[in-house]
Structures are given as structure tokens and as C-alpha cells.
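Interim report, section 4.2 (structural modelling).
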Amino acid sequence: MSRATDVSISTSGLRKEFGKITALDGIDVDIQGSQIVGLVGPNGAGKTTMIRCLLGLTGASSGDSEINGTPSGDLDRTDRADLGYMPQEEAVYRNLTVRENVEFFANLYRVPERESAVDQALAFVGLRDREHSRIGELSGGMVRRTSLACTLVGDPDVVFLDEPTVGLDPKLRSEMWDRFRDRRDDGSLLVVSTHYLGEAHNCDRVLFLRDGDVLAFENPDTLLERDDVEDLEDAFLQLLEEDDAAQAADAAAAGPAGGSDA
Amino acid sequence: MRLALPVARRLLLTLRGDRRTLGLVAGAPAFIIFLFSEVFPSPGPAQRFAPVLLGVFVFVLTYLLTAIGFLRERQTGTLERIRVSPVRRTELVVGYVLGFGVLGIIQALVLLGSGVFFLDAEFEHGIEFFFLVEVLGALSGLGIGIVLSLFAENEFQVLQFMPVVISPQLILGGTFLPVEDLSWYLEYPARVMPVTYLIKAMDYVVLDKGAPEDLWVSLLALGAMTVVSIIAAALVVNRT
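Predicted structure of the assembly:
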């Protein structure tokens, strides 16, 4: 499997507002080379919005973002052939079989030797024995795995997986992370969003978002050492507390004119 | 445009797996035309309404199938996945055009059989014009379906557009009264509605009513409306 070595993602002052709500508040990141980046944070932190901005699915309010050096808004069909995206939703066709779904996306990516690529993608997610089942006949975990096969059949260099493990049992979650590491070892750059904070230890780096702000962008071990805790969930809780304290201090410094209805 | 083909193929495969929709597409028009022929005597009103029945079914069904199909693409996330893939938005819409074009031809076959069998329709100017009008009717419904699907949050809202967008066309488009006899403030809107030209074209094709120019004008108008609605659909696909 050949792979580009110059995979990269970068953002500079990336900001996205929906009316009065700020979903992303000036994000600056620079990610170079194959790795798994965990996009972690509570619900509503801005994880999906960041992925959608990076992919050019929604325009940023201000700031820049690039994938492999190309601005998100200028990604042409050649650039997009290197991208894979697994949305948070089901994102497969319920009236098609598992194989027909994967074949459809293989066709869109004009995959050479399509049959064997589809076989490989199905084997990768462990669904060869159910390839002729319709999606409506599958369990939720199998549907997610079909969706992952649709994402990977085009052999993309940069892969965005939005909450891929949600609703899966712990064994399946663990298997999925094994698959992600396989892709990373093959040279892919994967951005995996999750609100299961404990899953972050599977990542090479973790981008921790809260209310559209980056609270930390570190290696998981560095986070554990910094906070002197054994569990990443504890490290994240500590980060949240520090952020709360900082916000409270800012509010106090602003004085009573800032107003409080507590 | 190469990637339009897999989109069209996927659309037809999905319909194959959805037997209720297939029944709606193939069975329902024949059944309604049968009921019509039983209630109204022939010759008489059954023949008068034949062009309307034969013309608007494909338009309305294609509108419904496209609007709901596109809505589902948005809701389930497949549209976003497609937008990230190397497909151009024009290829996506052309794929829909090809898929629903094939479906329009299948529906036209059903309607042709039903028209001949139940309504004694004679198609004096040949069936090729009938197929052309049916496919243009399907494609003009398709563009409207894609555009309106963007304003719907669920399937129920797609149906809510029917009385607002589809029913006025059926009432004003020549079903009950020639468009020329409408008040000016109704005539002008009627003249920019696809159903008006569908009925006028079918009047000529099925009943030999009107002049050949009426057919050509109707075909041109339908063709232009189809192109405009498909271009509008291609422009708005990314606004999800």
C-alpha cells in the first residue's frame, strides 16, 4: 500500500459562529505526518464543526484551514481522492447490501481493482460473512463497521472519523482502534473524534476542545505526567477544572459590571 | 461526468431494494387510471382527463421520490460523505437525472399500457412524443424536488409542499380550464409552471388537440424549465 509521506492538517485562527454561538474560537493547530489525532471533548465542544470546516463542508467565519497544504475551500477532486470521511450519522444506504454500499464508494473513488479493494475493506472491518446482508438487517455495530469500510475503501491518506465508536460495545471499540492503528502504521493521518475521554490513550496526540477552545494538544502520556494522574479521564477533568477556575478569575477581574444572576 | 453513472446505478439499486416504492411507481398509476376509467364513462370525461392523468403522475411521483431521497441523503450523512469524495456536484445531480430518467421511462411504459387499456388512448402522433414528454415531466419534477428538499426538515414537510407547490399547478395548469381563460393574475403564474406545458403537450399527443406548434412550444418550455431546475439543484446541493 503506497502512501504519501507529506500528509498534514493545519489551521490558523479558525473560527466558526452560528448566530450568537461560537462553535470554534480561533483554533491554531499544525499536524504533520502519519499519526492518530484524537479530537476529544464534551458534547458541543466543536469537534464535528472542526472536522466539517477542515473538509470544506461548511465555511469558516474567519481564519484558515488546510489539508495536505490545500485550503479547505479549494479542495478539488484530486485532493478529495486522498480524503476519507466517516460522519457521525449512519451514512450508508439502508436498502443496499453491505457490499453494494462499499462498492458504491469504491466507484466514486475510482478505485483500481475494485473487487479486491472491496474484499479487503470488508475483511478489514470483519464483515465478509455478512457482505450480502442488507443494512436494515444488521446490528448497530455492523452498520458502523460498514460505514468505516465505505470510508477506507478508497485508501485515503487523511481520514476523518467522527465518533466512530459511539454505540459500540467495548470489544468492538477496541477492535476498531486496532484497525485505526493499522492505518496509521500504513502511513495515514487519522483524526478521530470521541466523547469517550478514556479512548484518548489510543491516540498519538490529543486535541482537547471545550466550547470551541483548545484546552490542550498533547501526547496522552504528557498529559498524565503533567497532572500527575493515572487516568486520562482524571487529566481531562483536571483541565476542565483549571479552565473553570481561569474563567471565574477572569469574570471576577472584570468586576460586578459583568453581571451575575447566580 | 464519469462518476454520474455510479450515482445513477446506486439510485436504481436502492429502489430495487425498496419494493413499496417500486409498487408506488409502477402499480399506483395503473390502479388510479383503472379506477378513473371505471367511474367515468368512455368516451367522455375519461378521455378528456387522460392527458392530465398521463402527464402529471410522473411529475408528481418524481418530485416526491427526489425530494424524499435527497432529504434522506442529507439526514443520514451520505450526502456529506459524497461531497467529500471526488464526485463533482454536477455529476451527483446528473446521476440523479440519469437514474430518474430511467425510472421515468419505466413509468411511461406503465402509463402507456394503462392509457391504451383503460382509457382507450390512441396516441395519434406516435408514442415517441409521449415518452419524450413523460421524461421531461420527470426531470422537471426532479429539479424542483432537489431544491425543495433543502427547505424540508423531514418527510412530512416534503408532503406539506404538495398543496403549496404541486396543487396550484394541477388546478391552474389546464386541467379544468384552458390557461388562456384564466384571469391575468392567474394566467401569468400558470405560464411558468411545468404542469401547464405537460398537459398542453399531452393534449396534442393523446387527443390530437391543438396545433403542432403547441407541442413544440410545450417541449421547449419543459426543456428550458428542466434545465433551469437542474442547474438550480446543482447550485444548491452544497447548501446543506
